[in-house]
Amino acid sequence: MSNPGVCTLVEFQLNGQRFCIEDNIGEAIHIHYGHFRVDLTVEEFLTLADDMLKTLNDIIKVDGLDINQVDPLFLFEISSYLPELQSVKMDRIKLSDLQVDTLFMGTIPVIRGIGSSRIVAALRHNTEENDIHKQQNLLFQNNSQRLESVRHLIENNDYPYDGKYIILFNNQNIIRDGQHRAGCMYIKDSNREIEIQRFIFKNSMYNISMHPWFGTLFVWTPRRLLECMRKIKRICEYTKVYGVKRGLYSIGFIRCIWQAIRLKK
Fold it and tell me: Minimal CA–CA distance to 175: which of 158, 150, 197?
């Protein structure tokens, strides 16, 4: 049977080589890595995936960690963190105490309570931030469709479903995986207390800054640093001639400082 089409399931660069998994509809699953290709039937591919999960559980000996309870995409995203993972602990927390990384004025990253998240906003029919947010969805699924599918999942199965918990890192309450589930539950009962998993890393590694906006505003590129030094030099030259007060105002001191920290050069 000839395949009527090819669907790319996943594609990224690995060690400088293209890694890709394709579903050749009506034919087979192809795994590409550079110039190397593996042909598998759908059944063989699913068996391979199960065997790899079992192998990961055997390799990663971390107290409390069950690979089957972690979303595969999230596991891939944090794969480089795993060598520093020391334990996974269960904890309880009120939904209203959870935090998320979101955007202020659509540009500046900030940490806020889940009530200010893009997910809760979308569930309240303000979909602007959620629609433009870059994320991995199922094939042919957009952000709104993904949120709607999670909402139905929570309504029909409650939480946790299939043994998968919302994940936080260390002692922070910032959601690292599970913002859709948390938002759907928050809309129904913001004071509900739920079980979550805390991934505990060595020396509290991989915590998120509580002030991520600082790194966005104060981005010191070589060009920006040189320009700032030139302006400071001009300030010094003017103040020698006209005095401190007049020297600062004469070159627009406030304007020069803002130029040094503005969002885009």
Answer: 197
User: pTM here?
Assistant: 0.73
Listing DSSP states for 17-61 in one string gives EEEEEEEEETTEEEEEETTEEEEE-HHHHHHHHHHHHHHHHHH--
| Distance separating alpha carbons of residues 53 and 255, to the nearest angstrom | 56
Q: Cite the beta strand spans of the chain per DSSP E.
A: 5-14, 17-25, 28-33, 36-40, 85-94, 99-104, 108-113, 166-169, 175-177, 193-201
Count of residues in the chain = 265
Closest CA to 182 of 245, 244, 138, 120: 120
Distance CA 92, CA 72 (A): 23
Run of H or E residues at 224? helix 222-242
Specify the higher pLDDT residue, 106 or 1: 106
Q: How far apart are CA 223 and CA 16, in angstroms?
A: 30
pLDDT in tens, 166-206: 999 999 999 999 999 999 999 999 999 999 999 999 999 99
Q: Which residues contact 233 (CB under 8 A, 6 or more apart)?
A: none
- Residues paired with residue 93 on neighbouring β-strands, in sequence order: 194
Residues in a beta bridge with 167:
177, 197
More confident residue, 46 or 251: 46
Cα–Cα distance for residue pair 130/183, rounded to 1 Å: 12
